[in-house]
Amino acid sequence: MAVSLSRHTGIVALLYWIWDGVDRTIFTAIKFSFPARFVSPFGFLGMLTFTVFIILGVSGALLMFYYQPILDRAWDSVEFINDEVPFGFHIRNIHYHGSNAMVLLAVLHMYYQYFSGRYKIRNEVLWMTGVILGVVTILEAFTGYDVIFSERAELAISIAASLTTSIPVVGPTIRDAALGSGFSDFVLRFYAQHVFLLPIVMLGLMAVHFPRFLVFDVPMVMAIGGAILITGGVFPIDLGFKFEPTVPPGVTVPEWYLTGIYAFMRTQYDKFVTGLLWPLVFIIALVLIPFLDRYKKFSWRDRPMVTAFGITSLAQIMVTTYWGFYISPDVSIPLVERLVIDPIFFYGTMLLLVPLGFGFTYMMIKLANEAERKSKLAKSAGPQKVATINLSDKWINWLLVALLAFQVFLNIAAYNAALTGMKNVSLFLIGIILLVFAAFFHIYRYAIAQQKNAPPPAPVKIEEDLPELSESETTPEVTGDSTGEPSELPDDASEKKPQEFAPTVPTPTTKADLNTDSTSDPNLGSQDLTKP
User: Fold this and answer.
1) Which of 97, 175, 263, 445 is a plausible cystine mate for 323, CB 3.0–4.6 Å?
2) What percent of the residues of the chain are helix, what percent strand, and what percent coil, each to the nearest 5?
3) What is the pTM of this model?
4) What pLDDT score was predicted for residue 72?
């Protein structure tokens, strides 16, 4: 830390003191980059995922004050948080939708790194730990919504128990360690895994997975937080029905990130093969991709086989996820038959997606190469400068004032909505507040960048006071001709070039008489030369 000779007081001094205190820690070994302009968020999706992880940690810690991990009190304590605790509805929705956002961001981050070939720049360890971290993230979300112990949670717990039991040799031991001896103690075990064991594993993997250079874009972080709150306001999570052993459960499905495995299990094949072996093969294939990818280039267009595998896997994930949600609406059919998926149709579709994925990849590569060729031709024939939108200082000031006024209005509206009991409306407005703050920060950042990149001012012409000349000094000089008499100076002499004083010497010329009319001498022809 460089020593500064200037003295700091107040909050600035406190911030400098804190920074000096953490200067020797690992925190300052990580290089944080705060972009001075908008950059694509795809490059730092991992940082956004970690930010959502922090949001989940804070909101989960607040929920721990009122949640009771006891079998007959778990659902009731969540209901109390949702309905009675001040801002408990908000915290619970932030935690739930934040968990979904973290899983989604982790998947997007993995596939972006996959298609861009980032693992080829000596990032094999980062890639492998990232895949494992994605699996642990899904397990963390799974244990989180199970501790409510609703009918939906009971279905997920029953599936998890049957899957672990199907593992050869060590299956029953894993089931007893993770779930306990039955419903009497599984809530406490899942709670311990959710708030302690799995987060510790995730933090350890993050310490290895995160690179040294991290991009922390404040507007994008605020936008992600605002999107989570808006989703909670528009789609507030309900409690579901409390599980009662004496009441037959209704039709329900797991969370969206588990419905793909649920679809495989509904084909009624072996549980170990459909629920564990196929997902395990897919995870192992992803882990080994850096060692199987022997292409020298990074672009997805230059790695057709790897790109085809990624597109095919994405298509199969989307199809199986949708299939896991689908349940036949015919209530006249028994529930078991409504849940069964025809295995021939299901696996036939999965096999059909393989050639379709490779064909779609080939078409995409062809179209991308053709588009790149046309863009190069258009660039060489068209204007070289890209059109940009540049706001003047006046417009920037007006936008900042308008956003600030809108921010004040939103704060008042959110406060009134919270007082009147409109919880989802207040949560929605708080999300809009974060989005407006992100826009405000971005415009301010744009104004600072414009000020730094502004061209230098034009030089100002300075008129010097010259001494006045007498009439004789201002009279133009008159030159004389060869006879000694002065010649008159034309009026527009000042606009003409200066007169040359060197005498012009006439040179003799030779002319050819080519005149052939009737008045000319017939005895003279073009061969006769005369001198003037």
Assistant:
1) 263
2) 65, 5, 35
3) 0.79
4) 83
